[in-house]
Write a structure and sequence with these properties.
The chain is of the alpha/beta class. The protein contains 11 helices and 16 strands. The two termini are about 35 Å apart. Keywords: Metal-binding, Transferase, Zinc.
Length: about 300
């Protein structure tokens, strides 16, 4: 693992799992997404991981036009690295999931490293009424869908988004096998170091949020990639902050945001994405760690620069 002297904080602003009923703070409209993104960057996030939603209903949207309703404002309002999802949601086709990134040509995009069950239906049992009629069925439907990321689809993303457009990737690894998949594409020369390996814990269908699992993921990644990768890690839900701290103590980076967890403390909803970024920054600073700026992140990850995107 490359152990940087500064910690990159990524903020996943809205995602495609949580629904509007769950928190009034979840950004839905373009104005909310751009305002919360800029505030998260001001709080210390060097990277902003972005999804789009229908502004009327909050339903996750893959439409490039939806992304362009907030991308220019974010670029104008902050120097943070924009990281556009190619994961979208399990209800979208791969073509839909890639469309926004192919058009926007960001510095960074996510790449999911394997097909999997991606289940988040458990949240449905906590609510009796919903703001929008789609929410309950959307959550329950995750039990009967596959999050598809085949080798053919992954290779297509490397060639069309990476080689053709100069975008680099945050490799989202939900289990040990996903690390081996990344190693396969590295051996073929499609994945190019330094790799930003985002280890994800606590999704039903992926590896569990047990601290021992993060240690094991690091052991395997060290064997596969040596010092050609940067570690980042997060856990969904209540384990968010503890995994952030474990990642940094191991020499890695962190991701927070309302995509992954709606709370700031036990039983207390976060007021914004900046709320979480500010908290993790305070903790890391008190541990004596320095926080990376967007310029630092670009240098570490060898990104093409904000002047070379298409928005």
């Amino acid at each position: 693992m490359k152990k940087a002297s500064k910690v990159i904080i990524s903020c996943a602003v809205t995602g495609a799992v949580h629904t509007p009923t769950m928190s009034d703070a979840l950004p839905i409209t373009p104005a909310e997404i751009s305002e919360q993104s800029i505030a998260a960057a001001e709080a210390g996030a060097a990277i902003l991981h972005l999804h789009a939603r229908d502004p009327e209903t909050g339903y996750p949207s893959p439409a490039p036009d939806r992304f362009y309703e907030f991308l220019p404002a974010i670029k104008a309002g902050t120097d943070a690295v924009v990281n556009i999802t190619t994961g979208g949601s399990t209800r979208m086709t791969v073509q839909e999931r890639l469309a926004a990134a192919l058009r926007a040509q960001p510095e960074l995009a996510t790449m999911n490293m394997g097909s999997m069950n991606f289940v988040f239906s458990g949240a449905a049992r906590h609510y009796d009424t919903w703001k929008f009629p789609w929410e309950r069925d959307y959550l329950l439907g995750s039990e009967d869908s596959i999050f598809a990321n085949t080798f053919t689809q992954i290779e297509y993303s490397f060639r069309e988004l990476g080689d053709a457009r100069g975008t680099r990737f945050e490799f989202e690894c939900y289990d040990i096998g996903h690390l081996y998949t990344l190693a396969h594409f590295a051996d073929r020369g499609l994945a190019k170091p330094p790799f930003l390996v985002q280890c994800i814990f606590g999704i039903l269908g992926g590896i569990g949020a047990d601290p021992a699992n993060l240690s094991h993921m690091i052991t395997v990644a060290d064997k596969l990639f040596g010092d050609d990768y940067y570690l980042s890690a997060f856990a969904a839900g209540r384990h968010q902050m503890s995994f952030a701290i474990q990642s940094t103590l191991a020499g890695g980076h962190v991701r927070v945001g309302l995509e992954d967890n709606l709370y700031i403390a036990k039983g207390e909803l976060a007021k914004s994405n900046a709320d979480q970024v500010g908290k993790v920054r305070r903790i890391l600073t008190e541990l004596g760690l320095e926080i990376a700026t967007p310029t630092d992140a670009r240098a570490m990850l060898q990104l093409k620069g904000a002047g070379n995107v298409a928005f």
